[in-house]
Amino acid sequence: MSKSPKTRKNAPKRRAANAGPGPKAAKSARRTATSGKVAAKPSRRTERARRDPQSDAAKNRTKQAVLIALLSHSEGASVPEMAAKAGWQHHSVRGFLSGTVKKKLGLGLSSETVEGRGRVYRIAKRP
Question: C-alpha dihedral over 90, 75, 106, 83, to 10 degrees?
Fold first, then answer.
Protein backbone atom coordinates (compact mmCIF):
# COMPACT_ATOMS: atom_id res chain seq x y z
CA MET A 1 0.00 0.00 0.00
CA SER A 2 1.61 3.26 -1.07
CA LYS A 3 0.84 6.64 0.39
CA SER A 4 -0.19 9.54 -1.78
CA PRO A 5 2.41 12.32 -2.00
CA LYS A 6 1.77 15.19 0.41
CA THR A 7 1.85 18.74 -0.83
CA ARG A 8 4.23 21.08 0.87
CA LYS A 9 2.78 24.03 2.73
CA ASN A 10 5.12 26.62 1.24
CA ALA A 11 5.34 25.15 -2.23
CA PRO A 12 5.22 27.71 -5.05
CA LYS A 13 1.80 28.03 -6.58
CA ARG A 14 1.34 27.48 -10.27
CA ARG A 15 -0.14 30.27 -12.32
CA ALA A 16 -3.09 29.60 -14.52
CA ALA A 17 -2.47 29.85 -18.23
CA ASN A 18 -5.04 32.62 -18.65
CA ALA A 19 -4.04 34.65 -15.57
CA GLY A 20 -2.57 37.47 -17.65
CA PRO A 21 0.78 39.21 -17.34
CA GLY A 22 2.49 39.18 -13.99
CA PRO A 23 3.99 42.09 -12.08
CA LYS A 24 7.23 41.91 -14.07
CA ALA A 25 5.37 42.55 -17.32
CA ALA A 26 3.72 45.66 -15.89
CA LYS A 27 7.09 46.89 -14.62
CA SER A 28 8.76 46.38 -17.97
CA ALA A 29 5.91 48.25 -19.68
CA ARG A 30 6.77 51.34 -17.61
CA ARG A 31 10.42 51.28 -18.61
CA THR A 32 11.51 54.35 -20.50
CA ALA A 33 12.94 53.79 -23.94
CA THR A 34 16.14 55.77 -23.48
CA SER A 35 17.38 55.08 -19.96
CA GLY A 36 15.98 51.63 -19.19
CA LYS A 37 15.01 52.78 -15.69
CA VAL A 38 11.58 52.14 -14.29
CA ALA A 39 9.37 55.21 -14.45
CA ALA A 40 7.51 55.98 -11.24
CA LYS A 41 3.85 55.12 -11.36
CA PRO A 42 1.89 58.32 -10.59
CA SER A 43 -0.21 57.99 -7.47
CA ARG A 44 -3.90 58.79 -7.38
CA ARG A 45 -3.25 61.65 -4.97
CA THR A 46 -0.89 63.43 -7.37
CA GLU A 47 -3.26 62.92 -10.28
CA ARG A 48 -6.10 64.46 -8.25
CA ALA A 49 -3.90 67.39 -7.20
CA ARG A 50 -3.10 68.12 -10.83
CA ARG A 51 -6.79 68.23 -11.70
CA ASP A 52 -8.14 70.46 -8.93
CA PRO A 53 -5.58 71.86 -6.48
CA GLN A 54 -7.94 74.16 -4.56
CA SER A 55 -10.56 71.59 -3.61
CA ASP A 56 -7.78 69.11 -2.77
CA ALA A 57 -6.26 71.52 -0.25
CA ALA A 58 -9.53 71.59 1.67
CA LYS A 59 -9.77 67.79 1.64
CA ASN A 60 -6.24 67.32 3.03
CA ARG A 61 -7.04 69.13 6.28
CA THR A 62 -6.99 66.67 9.13
CA LYS A 63 -9.73 66.40 11.71
CA GLN A 64 -7.24 67.59 14.30
CA ALA A 65 -6.49 70.72 12.27
CA VAL A 66 -10.21 71.40 11.81
CA LEU A 67 -10.90 71.13 15.54
CA ILE A 68 -7.93 73.30 16.48
CA ALA A 69 -9.16 75.93 14.01
CA LEU A 70 -12.58 75.82 15.71
CA LEU A 71 -10.98 76.22 19.13
CA SER A 72 -8.84 79.12 17.91
CA HIS A 73 -11.85 81.27 17.01
CA SER A 74 -12.85 83.88 19.57
CA GLU A 75 -16.29 82.32 20.04
CA GLY A 76 -14.76 78.87 20.70
CA ALA A 77 -16.58 75.57 20.22
CA SER A 78 -18.71 73.24 22.31
CA VAL A 79 -18.28 69.47 22.45
CA PRO A 80 -21.39 68.76 20.31
CA GLU A 81 -20.20 71.26 17.68
CA MET A 82 -16.75 69.67 17.53
CA ALA A 83 -18.21 66.15 17.43
CA ALA A 84 -20.44 67.09 14.49
CA LYS A 85 -17.57 68.74 12.61
CA ALA A 86 -15.15 65.83 13.07
CA GLY A 87 -17.69 63.02 12.94
CA TRP A 88 -16.56 61.77 16.35
CA GLN A 89 -18.44 60.81 19.46
CA HIS A 90 -18.50 63.18 22.43
CA HIS A 91 -16.11 61.12 24.55
CA SER A 92 -13.60 61.10 21.68
CA VAL A 93 -13.71 64.89 21.51
CA ARG A 94 -13.13 65.16 25.26
CA GLY A 95 -10.18 62.77 24.95
CA PHE A 96 -8.79 64.87 22.11
CA LEU A 97 -9.06 68.01 24.26
CA SER A 98 -7.23 66.54 27.23
CA GLY A 99 -4.80 64.19 25.52
CA THR A 100 -3.83 65.99 22.34
CA VAL A 101 -4.54 69.67 22.87
CA LYS A 102 -3.40 69.96 26.47
CA LYS A 103 -0.77 67.22 26.86
CA LYS A 104 0.79 66.57 23.46
CA LEU A 105 0.52 70.03 21.93
CA GLY A 106 0.88 71.88 25.24
CA LEU A 107 -1.79 74.45 24.37
CA GLY A 108 -3.72 76.22 27.09
CA LEU A 109 -7.41 75.41 27.06
CA SER A 110 -10.04 77.59 28.70
CA SER A 111 -13.72 76.85 29.10
CA GLU A 112 -16.81 78.70 30.18
CA THR A 113 -20.53 78.01 30.26
CA VAL A 114 -22.49 79.97 27.67
CA GLU A 115 -26.26 80.07 27.79
CA GLY A 116 -27.77 78.21 24.87
CA ARG A 117 -24.51 76.49 23.86
CA GLY A 118 -23.38 74.78 27.05
CA ARG A 119 -19.69 74.57 27.93
CA VAL A 120 -17.59 76.29 25.30
CA TYR A 121 -13.86 75.59 24.93
CA ARG A 122 -11.25 77.81 23.33
CA ILE A 123 -7.49 77.87 23.10
CA ALA A 124 -6.23 80.36 25.66
CA LYS A 125 -4.00 83.15 24.46
CA ARG A 126 -0.47 82.92 25.79
CA PRO A 127 0.73 85.94 27.79
Answer: 20
26, 40, 63, 119, 123 from 94: Cα distances, Å? 49, 43, 14, 12, 14
Question: Model-level pTM greater than 0.90?
Answer: no
**Residue 99: inside a domain:** yes
pLDDT at position 91, please? 97
Q: How many CA atoms lie within 13 A of 119 on its CB side?
A: 7
Q: Count up the domains in the chain and report the number.
A: 1
CA 20/CA 16 separation, integer angstroms: 8
Q: Which CATH number fits the domain that encloses residue 100?
A: 1.10.10.10
8 A C-beta contact, residue 101 and residue 65: no
